[in-house]
Amino acid sequence: MPVQTRSSTNGGLGEKKGAETDVAGGDEKKMNKTFYIIFVSLIIDLLAFTVILPLLPSLLDHYGHKDKHGLYALMKDSVSSFRNFVGAPDTPKWNSVLFGGVIGSLFSFLQFLSTPVIGAASDVYGRRPLMLLCTVGVTLSYILWMLSDSFTLFVIARIIGGISKGNVSLSTAIVTDVSTPEKRGKGMALVGVAFSIGFVFGPTIGAIFSFMDKDSEKFYVLPAIFCILLAVADLLFLFVFLPETLPESKRSKTSTSVLSSALELISPLSLFQFASVKNVSSTDKKSVQNIGFIYFLYLFVYSGMEFTLPFLMHNRFDYTSMQQGKMFFFIGTIMALVQGGYVRRVKRGKEGKVVTQGILVLIPSFLLMAFARNIVLMYVALALFAFASATVVPCLTTMISVYGGVDQKGVVMGIFRSLGSLARATSPVFAATIYWCFGAEACYVSGGLLMALPLLLMKGQQKEKL
């Protein structure tokens, strides 16, 4: 059976045209089966992951009344200092949003630390055991959440969950293992669709839980049990159906490589340089670095605007939490339709063009958001926002997935996802500062102008390929 080959004669990193004549590791039927196993697993995982989002304000209020000292008080003081610095109003609603941003940034920062290490470990030990280990960690985090009668235990649960959330980069590595470059876009699009479905229905389920047993001091136990059941179901599903997609013969032979390169795998400078990816041509290494930097810049600006969107909708249109939920349902539905109907049909080599289109669409979207006083015009901006959300990341992921030999896919995809986590961890502070210090118009105009940077870099990347 033909397999993926590395252009080792010239030290190249990329998969050259004609290097793969069949699906790596199996036929097309096997490939599609693996695609859908990953698709179902991610939906289960993301439904559980997003259930907590609508519950965060109530959880923080609960722990605020219960834990008036210690870790909660320390974090509250930090958030209050930041709120005072940027001039945000001292109201329970915005305090919860800012506090939630701190928790979200912590989660993303832990993903930034763990994802490249998990990816590199999967190159040595295989995808399946690392995928199962991550799912066990996620399950443990939900069990601790169920038992978290203190804010400290709740934060520990989130820490374990953040460290264990390497399943997304592993999923993209698995898609890469079993697919040819021509078919890979379909797999990455399915990953994107799973995200859209999870982020549409998970918060909706969480909102339902928020109205159930809301007067009980243990209101979080029922949704936590629901998440535990989903996580256990995901673990059993993967144990029964997920095959190993990286045979031992194709794994990295240096068993100490993960520990010896640990600093490279968590150092921001090394990550931007993809320093842990060895034996590469300078041309291909530069391409990988460019795509990673474009991804970071894009997500840094995008995530910041996404974080401030609830501020904007409430301040300008007096949106309630329920209306906010409907708005995100609208965005998620468009994303799922675009990814399922358009992105998965993008032909090999055209991903860069689609990324350029997505970023280009996002610029007028942010400018419309900056000045729209009419809800219809705002929803036009949100539709453009949803299109960009659906296209840019899946296509960038497909673009970078062609680089790396079969024994380096995990570390390449792990570093790539880690850069995205770093962007999500740092952007809320940046965007919230601009929003509250200079106003919504300045925030979203800045977002539109800054989005020109990844756009120009993407166009430069495309010219280099020609």
TrEMBL record:
<feature type="transmembrane region" description="Helical">
    <location>
        <begin position="187"/>
        <end position="209"/>
    </location>
</feature>
<feature type="compositionally biased region" description="Polar residues">
    <location>
        <begin position="1"/>
        <end position="10"/>
    </location>
</feature>
<feature type="transmembrane region" description="Helical">
    <location>
        <begin position="354"/>
        <end position="372"/>
    </location>
</feature>
<feature type="transmembrane region" description="Helical">
    <location>
        <begin position="153"/>
        <end position="175"/>
    </location>
</feature>
<feature type="transmembrane region" description="Helical">
    <location>
        <begin position="433"/>
        <end position="457"/>
    </location>
</feature>
<dbReference type="GO" id="GO:0016020">
    <property type="term" value="C:membrane"/>
</dbReference>
<keyword id="KW-0472">Membrane</keyword>
<feature type="transmembrane region" description="Helical">
    <location>
        <begin position="130"/>
        <end position="147"/>
    </location>
</feature>
<keyword id="KW-1133">Transmembrane helix</keyword>
<dbReference type="InterPro" id="IPR011701">
    <property type="entry name" value="MFS"/>
</dbReference>
<feature type="transmembrane region" description="Helical">
    <location>
        <begin position="379"/>
        <end position="403"/>
    </location>
</feature>
<keyword id="KW-0812">Transmembrane</keyword>
<dbReference type="InterPro" id="IPR005829">
    <property type="entry name" value="Sugar_transporter_CS"/>
</dbReference>
<feature type="transmembrane region" description="Helical">
    <location>
        <begin position="325"/>
        <end position="342"/>
    </location>
</feature>
<dbReference type="Pfam" id="PF07690">
    <property type="entry name" value="MFS_1"/>
</dbReference>
<protein>
    <recommendedName>
        <fullName>Major facilitator superfamily (MFS) profile domain-containing protein</fullName>
    </recommendedName>
</protein>
<feature type="region of interest" description="Disordered">
    <location>
        <begin position="1"/>
        <end position="24"/>
    </location>
</feature>
<dbReference type="InterPro" id="IPR020846">
    <property type="entry name" value="MFS_dom"/>
</dbReference>
<feature type="transmembrane region" description="Helical">
    <location>
        <begin position="35"/>
        <end position="56"/>
    </location>
</feature>
<keyword id="KW-0813">Transport</keyword>
<feature type="transmembrane region" description="Helical">
    <location>
        <begin position="97"/>
        <end position="118"/>
    </location>
</feature>
<feature type="transmembrane region" description="Helical">
    <location>
        <begin position="221"/>
        <end position="242"/>
    </location>
</feature>
<feature type="domain" description="Major facilitator superfamily (MFS) profile">
    <location>
        <begin position="34"/>
        <end position="465"/>
    </location>
</feature>
<feature type="compositionally biased region" description="Basic and acidic residues">
    <location>
        <begin position="14"/>
        <end position="24"/>
    </location>
</feature>
<feature type="transmembrane region" description="Helical">
    <location>
        <begin position="295"/>
        <end position="313"/>
    </location>
</feature>
<dbReference type="InterPro" id="IPR036259">
    <property type="entry name" value="MFS_trans_sf"/>
</dbReference>
